[in-house]
C-alpha cells in the first residue's frame, strides 16, 4: 500500500481544504464546524491511494516476477485474490467516506478510483497517456479537498493542472528506474518542476504571501532537484529511483506551500509535519 505515499495523498487533500479558506474560519475544526468533513476526506484519500497502489501490484504481478520479485505478490507474502479483495475494500471505503461528506466529494472520489484502475489496467503502458492519467488522479485529489466547500470548485478547479503537471513529470521520469533512463526525459522533468514552482510563486505574489510561500517552495525545490541533477549526471536505475522517491515525498512540501499561500503559516506547518512521517515510512516500506 506504500504507506509513505499515502501520507502525501492526505497532504494533497489538506492543501485543497486550505485553498478554500476553511481553516481560517473561527470554530472550523470543531464537531459543529468542518472537523468531521476533514477527517472523512482524509480517510477517503488514504483509502483511494492505497487501493490504487494495491491494484498496481495486482495488474503487474506477472511483470514483477521478473523486475520486482521482492514485492508482496511475487514473493508469495500475499495472493492475487487476497490483494484484489483488499484493493476493492479500500476503494469502496474511500468512495463511501467521501459521499458521507457530500455528493460532490463522492463523485470526485469515484472518479479517482476509476482513473486509478484505468492507469493500472491499461494506460500506464502508454508513454504520454500513462503519466497524464496518473496526473489526473493527483489533480482530482487536490479537488477532493476543495470539494469540502462544493460552491468553491468552480473558482479553484483550474489549480488541479499543477499536480497534474507535477505527477506527469514524476511518472515520466519513473519509466527509467528499473533499467535506466534518458537524459531527455530528465531535462523535460526539470523544466516541468520549474513550471510547478513558478505557478505557486505566482499565487504567492498575487495573494501577498510570497514570503510564507517561499519558506516551503525553497526546500521543495532543493529536495526534488538534488537527486534529479544526480540522475541527469548519471541516468542509471538507482539514481532515477532516488529522484522519483524524492519527487513523491516532496509533494508534502508543495502542499504546504499551497497552504501558506492561501491559508496560514500554522496550517502550512501542520502539513509540513507530515514530511518526517512520510520519510520515516519510506525507510521501512517501498515508495516506488
UniProtKB/TrEMBL annotation:
InterPro entries: Prenyltransferase_related, UbiA_prenyltransferase, UbiA_sf. Its main location: membrane. CDD domains: PT_UbiA_1 (cd13964). It is found in: Membrane. Keywords: Cell membrane, Membrane, Transferase, Transmembrane, Transmembrane helix. One of its GO terms (molecular function) is transferase activity, transferring alkyl or aryl (other than methyl) groups. This is Polyprenyltransferase. It is a multi-pass membrane protein. It comes from Mucilaginibacter terrenus. The chain crosses the membrane at residues 6-23, 35-55, 88-119, 155-174, 186-205, 211-229, 241-259, 265-286. It comes from the Bacteria. One of its GO terms (cellular component) is membrane. Signal peptide: none annotated.
